[in-house]
Amino acid sequence: MPEFLSPWLFLLLIPIGAAAFFLRRRRCPPAISYPSTANLHPARTLRLRLSGLPNFLRAAAVVLIVLAIARPRQGEATSVVHREGIAIQMVLDRSGSMEEELNYQGRPTPKIEIVKSIFKDFVAGGEDLPGRQSDLLGLTTFARFAEENCPLVSLHEPLLTAVANLKTVPPFITAARVPTWDRSQAAAQNPLSATAIGEGLKRATLALIAAEEDLARGRERGEDTYEIKGKVVILLTDGQHNAGLDPLEAADLAKANGIKVYTIVLFDRDVVMETPFGRRIARRLGDAELEQVLEIPRKISERTGGRSFLAADGDALHRIYEEIDQLERVDIGAVTYRTWRERFAIPLLLGVILLLCAQALDATWLRRTP
Fold first, then answer.
1. Terminal-residue alpha carbon distance, the chain
2. Which of 52, 171, 206, 215 has its CA 20 to 30 A from that of 106?
């Protein structure tokens, strides 16, 4: 919506209008009198009917020129000014199994690509997700070891770049111990392609603690720093914990620091295998086997006051992120504009054209003799 840089300049129309009114009332009598035809009641020709058009055009031109002087403009690039919100550390599994495919939007898609797509919508907005403009967000990933891919940031471009560049750990190694995704070259399982849930959760917890301490030190120095209203970890994995720190120890650390953990298991209980005729369901996991996969994530969420979710495909994962988005939201922030597009040129040009038209009409077709 356009706005005016100096709307008070519209007050100029008041003295301009008043001056035009009084000048019209105080016209001087002509120096030489000519015979008048006013009493003859001439026919109302088109020229006579439009005799006041030049004055109308001049009045419209003055209004347009004053409008241009008031500097209409329209904001283009926006930013959100915020001083408080939720700190959310995303924790993503990037073990080799994340290259397996699940259905998403009607087609088989690698899990890692599903996660990256939905993560982008969760952060920046899209596909029924409003975005997290007022929050601090960071990214931790894990396989056998955890890695902080992006610290907590309020401007999310670096985070989205880190997600876009995210790669899984190759599930195999060749005889020369070179990581590979090619099963035909595999000599053994890649030891780095494990699922260390505890390591990922601990690294994310420490990132949240460090961010809160940094902000507290800034406030002590009198800086107007961001205030964290809540600390959240969203941990996504597609398998069972099988390496590194006990996840429940990491959950206790998160609980002790007031961090709520939501866990998401991206897992289809249908075991699919590739055949010469395409992908086929080999078998379906029983309830006991599924419970074994969900046990650790559920306990983590219960200890920290969060919730645990199971997503059997990409569409279910999207719905889970929508639900978490509603559960953890602080709507604080004001939209401001960083760049503006000036809109004064059009009214200024129209005003000048109307003035020229009025002058041309007065000098030609609607010219008056004394």
1. 49
2. 171
- Other beta carbons within 10 angstroms of residue 168's beta carbon come to 21
Residue 255 lies in a domain: yes
Residue 331 pLDDT exceeds 60: no
The pair phi, psi for residue 300, each rounded to 5°, is -60, -50
Counting Cβ atoms within 10 Å, is residue 57 exposed (0-12), middle (13-18) or buried (19+)?
A: buried
What is the per-residue pLDDT for 330?
63
Rounded Cα distance, 170 and 182, in Å: 9
CATH code for the domain in which residue 189 is found: 3.40.50.410
Both 93 and 152 in a single domain? yes
How far lies 47's CA from each of 42, 354, 358, in Å? Answer: 12, 18, 14
Whether residue 190 sits in one domain with residue 56: no
The answer on 349 and 206 residing in a single domain is no
233 and 103 fall within a common domain: yes
Indicate the pTM of the whole model.
0.66
Do residue 269 and residue 362 come from a single domain?
no
- Residue 199 inside a domain? The answer is yes
Query: Quick one: 201 and 114 in the same domain?
Result: yes
Please state, in angstroms and rounded to a whole number, the distance separating the CA atoms of residues 146 and 142: 4
Residue reference for tokens 């961090």: 259
Please tell me the least confidently modeled range out of 45-49, 145-149, 315-319. Answer: 45-49
Range of the domain at 357: 47-76+343-370
Total structural domains in the chain?
A: 2
DSSP 105-161: TTEEEEHHHHHHHHHHHHHH-BTTB---TTSEEEEEEESSSEEEEEEEESS-HHHHH
Query: pLDDT tens digits, residue range 210-227?
Result: 998 888 888 788 776 777
Helices 197-220 and 287-304: angle between axes, nearest 10 degrees: 20
194: CB partners within 8 A, 6+ apart: 95, 143, 144, 242, 243, 244
Distance CA 7, CA 4 (A): 5
CA dihedral 249, 251, 255, 257 (to 10 degrees): 80
202 with 307, same domain: the answer is yes
Distance CA 27, CA 24 (A): 6
Cα 227 to chain centroid distance, Å, stands at 21
